[in-house]
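If you are new to this repository, start here. Below is one unmodified record pulled from the training split, so you can see the exact layout before writing a loader.
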Amino acid sequence: MTDTILNTNFDVKRQRFRNQNGFKKAANFKLLDKDNKEFELNKITSKYTIVYFYPRDNTPGCTIEAKNFTEKLTEFNKLDTTIFGISGGDEKSKTKFCEKHQLTITLLSDPDFKVAESYNSYGQKMFMGRTFLGIKRNTFLLNQDKEIIKVYEKVSPKKHIDQLLSDIKEME
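And here is the target side for that same chain:
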């Protein structure tokens, strides 16, 4: 897991200029959840927002990560933190994934990968000697102004939720 304040590979073409604090404004998005409810990043008013990208619904690592977020959701809520998980697929795959694993976090569908691309979280990957395009397991921690205050790349699905909680508590 790499913890960096700013990722130099971040897609600055779709971002605003850095502000006086040196943070980049996160790319706004409007995506649908499993119930066809639209979520827009800029309309979220919580103190912190977590935007995490995961490769695919119902795969082992993605299931571990989503279940861990769900288990810790009360702690995140106490810290006034909204969580969005984003991957490809459609609303039906999100519904099946949430129902199968009793997930209560908000999972959003990015079927054309445009949002993932704008966060530099879609691209060439390698798995078992095979190269392909897909979503990278990256997480972005945003402040209330939707500035990216921390980027976590190639995260461990088992460990990174506790790291996020620790980092947010440190900022309190």
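Two things worth knowing about this chain: Helices lie at 60-71, 73-78, 91-101, 114-118, 160-171. Residues 1-20 have pLDDT under 50 and may be disordered.
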